[in-house]
């Protein structure tokens, strides 16, 4: 016995027998079910072992059949295609009630009506959309929920035109989704059997649905006289079960959960390339057959063996040439299943313990159904496999590794199964407008026609936070984003920075944006490293090759990356964000891997002042520990200060007291679910363009920003980045109305927002003027002028002292300069003098010796 699949189940030895009746005394109901399987296998193949040598063209029929088998339920997916001596190698079925699955599920398909469980099952948006299409069909099957679903499946596979080439349907999706909540309400015994024995049950569900499909497809094409054989069309539906009543916590998985159905929620952090997994091994004899005296020819003997329980029976002797140990593995004729490794990290809110990392294997049509950064709910079979101590030895470790074979993957962005009456919880948001029913789309369009939609959105955004309306307007602009034009090189993401005093709701605003954003990652600056933000290289457990693991900004591709405590990040992590915020990419060159990853994400950051409280006597670049070049990449910079305002303070105090007292708060004009849907719909379907009038206003406002009244005439107060920011803000404001074009009012409001935020934050506290130079140099013009004066004063002082002494010491320089500044009414610190001395030394204007300083 040779091990073929490293990801297979542990080795188990069984006594083979070709007589299915010989095992009638086995435990549970194995004999009845296995006998039924053998009968179906004979009916499907026509004959037994000789069929594997029957040729269709140049491919044996056994190879053609096994390619149609499903791989996500392991060996059970190939049970129908196996021969008797292969079937008896499958695991035992210990529960006799498993024989009832066929009849119970058949009854469910033919009798389940959603209307009969009105008080038990809460209909989803998909249910309403499905039932709305019932009027398009006159067949009696349309009265059944899954009968109607099968009719829609057939219609999608073959089209309404009977002249269409049926074989083209094989490229279409074969998923036929079954909601476990429906099964639980209809037949609780069947539900529990599916949870306990998913592989066996799903195999039976496929057969029942296959017969259901045959019966309905005959009726579908019966009136036209078209004869359809599903075995040749290869469009049999494949059951995908989802909707387990309880979402599992990976930390609680134990030995009792092995081979049971589980459901977990998490974030995808890595998807591998497609991995081939052998399901059938082809062997070819390498011996020779004697055809005459001293005449030999190559033996034509071939044999095919299934990979069962991770093992394959290698033939030991050839019946044709009578040689022993002469078979070689024939790779070209082996069957492989397409497999993809998906690494998932549990969502923090789904468990009180530390989030667990899970390995998930997706097969066939589930490959690429989720991408890194997607929030997913995975329904699958919890499996284990043995680990070899040495790859060259058959000895296995007693500690097994665990993984999940996915049966269904549902992303939060593409979920159709949200409740129609969803509680106002931000963790249950439907964010993909492509799946919205017509009723939801009509509601979105009705909202967009409201004349005061802009104010309604502001009032509905973070209603628990009092005031901060301009901050909310800017964050709404970030959520809606600018027009996404693939032909344009301009980024459509809007970057926002919140900086100011502690306890001003900055973190709460970040969390609210994170909940509403279609996708993204929330992280803290202190706990984020350079590789944690971008990507890191690690060795893959399966292939032992170096692979890239995505970081926060890569996982947020297409969404918003929220970074709290932005000022506390290390300098290396901040430096990597320069490329992300402007070029929207991340370049990696590590361990022989050179790659450029997409990071088309908007950055929302919050930062606290260096001295905890914001010092109004200093400029923003002096208060916040950020590089000036990073400041300039933010479209909107908000100063969120804690000012004494009795009226606002009283309102905030009342609101907090009512919240702790349990008093009901007034509902926002637009609930969070509808707001999230509205934002997602606008992001995907609305791309407003600039009209001639709006372009003129943007140009005019930009020229005014270049030379702001009160600023030095020769110093520009805006750059091309501010012009691009104006365009992005104008388009985002137009998106809020789902308008196809940017109006002049949008352009004026964008200019007002930029002046009220970014430009006000750049006011020099000394001169009272807007100083754009601080984004380029890190100093205001007044501070730069004062520094230049100090350098001249220190240089003059050293020259004066060294006329009478060999060197000038630090104390003497500081006292003389301090007196000069005091005479002008200014204060001078010792640290400033030391910085000036270091600067003069770097410029090679002075030298330092043991005795002090001297001018060169």
Could you describe the 3D structure shown?
- Its EC number is 3.6.4.12.
- Component of the MCM2-7 complex.
- Strand 27 (846-848) and strand 28 form a beta hairpin.
- Strands 6-12-13-15-14 form a 5-stranded mixed β-barrel.
- Helix content is 36%, strand content 19%.
- The chain folds into 4 domains: 97-242, mini-chromosome maintenance (MCM) complex, chain A, domain 1 (2-Layer Sandwich), CATH 3.30.1640.10; 250-411, Beta Barrel (OB fold (Dihydrolipoamide Acetyltransferase, E2P)), CATH 2.40.50.140; 467-643 and 671-761, P-loop containing nucleotide triphosphate hydrolases (Rossmann fold); 780-855, Orthogonal Bundle (Arc Repressor Mutant, subunit A), CATH 1.10.10.
- The protein is built from 28 helices and 28 strands.
- The chain is α/β, with parallel strands linked by helices and 856 residues long.
């Amino acid at each position: 016995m040779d091990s073929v699949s490293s990801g297979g189940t542990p080795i188990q030895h069984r006594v083979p027998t070709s007589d299915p009746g010989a095992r009638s005394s086995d435990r549970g109901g194995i004999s009845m079910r296995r006998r039924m399987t053998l009968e179906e296998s004979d009916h499907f193949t026509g004959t037994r072992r000789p069929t594997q040598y029957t040729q269709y063209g140049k491919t044996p029929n056994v190879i053609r059949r096994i390619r149609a088998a499903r791989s996500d339920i392991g060996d059970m997916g190939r049970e129908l295609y196996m021969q008797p001596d292969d079937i008896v190698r499958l695991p035992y079925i210990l529960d006799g009630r498993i024989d009832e699955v066929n009849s119970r599920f058949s009854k469910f398909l033919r009798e389940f009506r959603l209307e009969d469980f009105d008080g038990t099952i809460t209909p989803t948006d998909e249910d309403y959309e499905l039932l709305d299409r019932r009027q398009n069909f006159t067949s009696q099957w349309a009265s059944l929920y899954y009968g109607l679903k099968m009719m829609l499946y057939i219609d999608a596979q073959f089209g309404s035109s009977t002249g269409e080439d049926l074989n083209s349907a094989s490229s279409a999706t074969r998923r036929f989704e079954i909601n476990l909540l429906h099964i639980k309400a209809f037949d609780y015994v069947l539900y529990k059997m599916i949870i306990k024995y998913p592989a066996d049950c799903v195999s039976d569900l496929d057969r029942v649905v296959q017969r259901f499909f045959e019966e309905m497809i005959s009726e579908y094409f019966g009136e036209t006289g078209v004869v359809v054989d599903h075995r040749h069309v290869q469009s049999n539906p494949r059951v995908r079960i989802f909707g387990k009543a309880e979402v599992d916590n990976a930390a609680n998985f134990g030995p009792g959960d092995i081979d049971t159905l589980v459901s977990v929620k998490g974030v995808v952090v890595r998807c591998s390339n497609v991995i081939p997994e052998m399901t059938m091994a082809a062997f070819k004899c390498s011996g020779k057959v004697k055809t005459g005296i001293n005449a030999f020819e190559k033996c034509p003997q071939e044999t095919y063996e299934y990979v069962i329980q991770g093992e394959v029976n290698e033939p030991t002797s050839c019946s044709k040439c009578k040689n022993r140990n002469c078979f070689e593995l024939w790779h070209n004729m082996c069957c492989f299943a397409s497999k993809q490794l998906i690494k998932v990290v549990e969502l923090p809110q789904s468990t009180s313990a530390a989030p667990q990392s899970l390995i998930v294997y997706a097969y066939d049509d589930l490959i690429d159904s989720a991408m890194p950064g997607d929030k997913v709910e995975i329904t699958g079979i919890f499996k284990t496999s043995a680990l070899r101590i040495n790859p060259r030895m058959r000895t296995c470790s007693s500690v097994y590794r665990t993984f999940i074979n996915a049966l269904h993957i549902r992303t939060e962005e593409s979920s159709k199964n949200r409740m129609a009456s969803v509680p106002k919880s931000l963790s249950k948001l439907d964010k993909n407008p492509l799946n919205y029913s017509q009723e939801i789309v009509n509601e979105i369009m009705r909202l967009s026609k409201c004349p005061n939609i802009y104010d309604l959105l502001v009032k509905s955004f973070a209603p628990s936070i009092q005031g901060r309306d301009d901050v909310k307007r800017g964050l709404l602009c970030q959520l809606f984003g600018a027009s996404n034009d693939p032909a344009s090189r301009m980024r459509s993401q809007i970057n926002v920075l919140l900086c100011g005093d502690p306890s001003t709701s900055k973190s709460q605003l970040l969390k609210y944006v994170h909940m509403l954003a279609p996708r993204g990652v929330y992280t803290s600056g202190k706990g984020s490293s350079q590789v944690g933000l971008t990507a890191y290289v690690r060795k893959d457990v399966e292939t032992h090759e170096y692979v890239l693991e995505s970081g926060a900004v890569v996982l947020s591709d297409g969404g918003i990356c929220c970074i709290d405590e932005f000022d506390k990040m290390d300098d290396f992590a901040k430096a990597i964000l320069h490329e992300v915020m402007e070029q929207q990419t991340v370049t990696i060159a590590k361990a022989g891997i050179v790659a450029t990853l997409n990071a088309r994400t908007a950055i929302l950051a919050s930062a606290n002042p260096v001295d905890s409280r914001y010092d109004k006597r200093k400029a923003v670049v002096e208060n916040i520990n950020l590089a000036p070049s990073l400041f300039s990449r933010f479209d909107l910079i908000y100063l969120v200060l804690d000012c004494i305002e009795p009226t606002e303070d009283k309102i905030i105090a009342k609101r907090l007291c009512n919240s702790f007292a349990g008093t009901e708060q007034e509902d926002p004009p637009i609930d969070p679910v509808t707001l999230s849907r509205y934002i997602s719909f606008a992001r995907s379907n609305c791309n407003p363009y600039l009209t001639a009038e709006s372009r003129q206003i943007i140009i005019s406002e930009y020229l005014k920003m270049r030379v702001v009244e009160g600023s030095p005439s020769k110093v520009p107060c805006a750059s091309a980045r501010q012009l691009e920011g104006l365009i992005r803000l104008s388009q985002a404001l137009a998106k809020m109305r789902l308008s196809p074009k940017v109006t002049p009012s949008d352009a004026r409001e964008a200019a007002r927002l930029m002046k009220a935020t970014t430009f006000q934050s750049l006011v020099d506290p000394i001169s009272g003027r807007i100083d754009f130079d601080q984004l380029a140099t890190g100093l205001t013009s007044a501070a730069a002028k004062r520094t230049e004066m100090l350098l001249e004063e220190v240089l003059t002082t050293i020259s004066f002292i060294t006329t009478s002494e060999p060197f000038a010491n630090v104390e003497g320089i500081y006292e003389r300069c301090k007196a000069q500044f005091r005479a002008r009414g200014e204060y001078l610190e010792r640290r400033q003098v030391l910085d000036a001395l270091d600067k003069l030394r770097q410029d090679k204007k002075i030298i330092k010796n043991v005795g002090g300083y001297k001018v060169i």
